[in-house]
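Supplementary material to the annual report.
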Amino acid sequence: MPSLVAKAREGDARSVARLISLVENGDPALPEVAAAMAPHAGRAQVIGLTGAPGVGKSTTTNVLVRALRERGDRVGVLAVDPSSPFTGGAILGDRIRMQDHSGDSGVYIRSMSSRGQLGGLSAATPQAVRVLEGAGCDVILVETVGVGQAEVEIASLADTTLVLLAPGMGDAIQAVKAGVLEIADVFVINKADRPGADATYRDIQGMLALGERGPGEWRPQVVRSVAAKGEGVDDVVAAIGKHRDWLEGTDKLRERREHRAATEISALALGTLRARMGDLSGGTALPDLAARVATGELDPYAAASALLAALGR
Amino acid sequence: MPSLVAKAREGDARSVARLISLVENGDPALPEVAAAMAPHAGRAQVIGLTGAPGVGKSTTTNVLVRALRERGDRVGVLAVDPSSPFTGGAILGDRIRMQDHSGDSGVYIRSMSSRGQLGGLSAATPQAVRVLEGAGCDVILVETVGVGQAEVEIASLADTTLVLLAPGMGDAIQAVKAGVLEIADVFVINKADRPGADATYRDIQGMLALGERGPGEWRPQVVRSVAAKGEGVDDVVAAIGKHRDWLEGTDKLRERREHRAATEISALALGTLRARMGDLSGGTALPDLAARVATGELDPYAAASALLAALGR
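Predicted assembly:
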């Protein structure tokens, strides 16, 4: 293990891959890995990238990687699938993307699923980020599908969150419904050469104008792109840079990173407790309590109390 | 409280509304409400309805409600927003939908957010379902936006899960990526009068053909609809009925409901523990540990151990 960590620290791609596999599989050696990586915490800029299926997340990530490489950054990409124990689609996507950056030792691309990991992706993703930080990445892109709770969780792990939209994929009210207004630091209207792009732009700007913002607070940027043609990528990079400057000029970077650490710690602690719940046996085991709740013999609160009592707290 | 529960049991809409507000706000009286509702558990058929923004979830829910009312069912609708503390969009949606069913005492429509609730929506939604069951609903539609972890959680609360797709909103690989193949009992290809509907239909059927299924296992149905014109709704209702018959003919209904209860119980128990973590003070309080992890002084595993030790376990 120490030599694996040492090699990963030197940027050896195979060692990085093995460490992230350990993270994914919830390996018992993870605390040791985490302890070795801890001193390198906070080096990289972590960028979250989210949006509904079909808005062009993979393509955008791909062109962003290219742009960041051109300015000399070492780049890590984590494509996170919060819902599926399978990674079929993601792996296919990786292969396609890998081709674009094959032979470039300054890019590390990896898709992650949540199988096995104590605390789920909300614990596994920041651990993988730490591995990439330790391996010397300057920027880490965390790409995740969909909109919903998992996105909000993963967005909270990023320094800067990009929300991708595309014209004709749902109107402004839908965007509010999905909670993206709250998590977006930068809106990217991709496929901006399609009909409806101007309307989407106006809707987002209109909603941002309604939001109350104190002095010195960040106003989300809205940029347009056509990632498939490489158009607008410079604007996206500029918006990310502008947000980074704002984070560093205020106390927000520290706040966000402490929030990220708190999420990670509590996910690990709750994961441990959840595992212990599964290990209980006898009438207070979760399946037994659940059967009694399903038939109406017991209510869920009484069952939860019984469960906590059985855990000895 | 006992009279509120009694009135809700008689189907009084205002009392039902107040009880669901208690659920949403995590009211201290909830264990009492849960105990009163427990004997009525398992009466209603719970149908989950999910899909990306813009596929037509609200419209589909609306026409489904109409179809179920026509056959005499009492119907409850929970529009669940898993991501946002705001309910702006959802409330607007409610108003539009309410108009369609105003004056019909056999329909109860409510949007929910997760603010305040111990255990989040994975605890609050089944509790709201219990309130609606107790109030005599025969069918409860739980509508939720997006694809991702929250959807998978909410799908696990339903007897039958409908996944809505629309042509041109992302290809089949995206659907696999989002994990919907695993949670869908019925695929509804809405907006089926649009170009690409046949391709979407074939893609889904093709992927289902690839899936391995033992004898007696459910093969997800694929139906097409144009909800805005009321087309295909009978097919959706028929597919739901077919799945219900399968659930009742096997042991799956009991299994699903026990799984639902287990999810609810563990969410409540973990919510309690999470609240206790927030109450800790001194150097073992989560913010203090998080600050040390953010600077690299401590690793997250060591912090999680310290947190659990502080909780006395």
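Chain A touches chain B through 90 residues (CB under 8 Å).
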